[in-house]
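Give me structure tokens for this 74-residue protein.
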Amino acid sequence: MIDENIKKQALELSLQERAELAHMLIDSLHPEKEFESEEAWSEELKKRIDRYEQGKSSTKPWSEVKKNAQSLLD
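Here you go.
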């Protein structure tokens, strides 16, 4: 369980600082694969953009995505 003080401090960070912290924590899970994961995400992003631009995929508003994600966590 994460200490409540750590959670509070993390949530007080700016948006940019929280994003950097999240990135650092995710990378720390598999440090030996950091370069590979960055490259893989970049390729995946390119594929998704291509599919979207070709009309082969749809989008949803962030509010809907967030609501669906939260319901999965509850």
